[in-house]
Amino acid sequence: MRLIPTNDELNTLRQEVLDFCEKLIPETTKGLERQGTMSDGDSVEFYRQLGQAGWIGRHWPEQYGGKSCSHLETFIVDEALGYARAPLSGYLLSVKVFGNSLMIFGTEAQKAKYLPMITSGEAILCQGFSEPSAGSDFGSLRTSARLDGDNYVINGHKIWTSSAEVATHMYLAARTDPDAVKHRGISTFILDMKTPGVTVNTFETLGGGVINEVFFDNARIPAANLVGELNRGFHQSMKSLDLERSAMDRIGAARRALDDLSKYIHKDGTAPDGGRLSDVPAVQEKMAELYSQAQVSRTFGYLIARHLDAGTGTSNEFSYGKLYIGLLSQAIANAAVDMIGTRAIFEYGSELAVNDGLLTALYRASPALTLVGGSSEIQKSVIATRGLELPR
Ligand SMILES: Cc1cc2nc3c(=O)[nH]c(=O)nc-3n(C[C@H](O)[C@H](O)[C@H](O)COP(=O)(O)OP(=O)(O)OC[C@H]3O[C@@H](n4cnc5c(N)ncnc54)[C@H](O)[C@@H]3O)c2cc1C
After folding, report:
1. 3-class DSSP state for residue 139?
2. 22-73, pLDDT tens digit by residue?
3. Beta strands in 186-329 (DSSP E)
4. Pocket test for ligand 1, best of 35, 372, 382, 383 (most atoms within 8 A of CB)
5. What domains are there in the chain, each with its CATH number?
């Protein structure tokens, strides 16, 4: 594996992804255009073409359909995809949450079967961790997996299940030992979404996308679909969540929102006196502050990539990046709506909408950005207790 690609190689890679997206996004993302963070949406067609072009799971070994490249190169791809406003929800869950966990905890047979299905764009994974009584408190989950012969029988209810409406499989966490204390007795599984007894309900969100709840009614999955050790799912899932928190796509998306805002404020008539907002000192100061913070968030992202490549890094380092980009995305969305003013009420499709209504849509989507993948309060708690070793 080449661990240190040159800056020229990384810039070429970034440009290749941007060119790929520019060609494909208009025709493969119909219906998603109005979403504030299109990266929270899914286009099966875009995902399939992403796989066919070899952009999915490049850091995995070639025997699993990857290119054995560094995590840094994958992070550059993710950042460019986020910048291009590509629909990424299923991609991120398939690669960062499921695939990377399978690389660590999966059997050889599971890796050989599922990773090539992901890299080719054939399999899309969703993540079935959160439940009505188990979000931040993941150890309280109640969905049960009872062994019956060669199968586990699944019963329960998941909520907040992004991409379940398009997913072919779910990375599922369920309770396998009801008598164990809450953080023990949880295991993780691969579940085929076509399994009888699985029902998906889809809801529209404030940000313009969709989210799901999933019910399991005696859904039977092969015992061979257990991922990792029986009853060690809580500890394994903490690793999956760490991997989910390396939010390079959001860093790219935040930078894109800032660049879009920057273009807007340079136009005549954007300031209350008819001039340009870009001439207003308070606006210049705000833009400088947000661009500097965007640079800091990139540095966090690249640091995490270096850690992954070197096999180092601890949970609190992933949490720094996740906390920072969640808050920064909200700050950008708030600043955009402040600067756009009353025209922010016009949405995608209106000729009066600024930037096609996308910055305003980002504002509506942004409350979720400090919740998804673990809330900001939980990131602070990880940093305080694991990073700073403050008392629990
Ligand atoms: C857009 C979106 C997509 C998501 N996609 C998925 C998905 O695909 N799969 C999946 O499994 N989950 C998903 N989630 C769920 C997400 O992981 C949870 O929303 C998150 O973990 C918070 O859990 P909760 O919603 O139950 O809130 P709660 O845990 O009930 O928390 C409510 C509030 O209390 C605070 N809080 C809770 N405990 C503490 C504490 N100990 N100390 C301080 N403050 C605390 C939280 O920070 C939060 O502000 C998604 C969420 C969103 C918003």
Report:
1. helix
2. 999 988 888 888 787 777 789 999 999 999 999 999 999 999 999 999 999 9
3. 186-192, 198-204, 210-222, 226-227
4. 372
5. 7-123 (1.10.540.10), 127-229 (2.40.110.10), 245-387 (1.20.140.10)
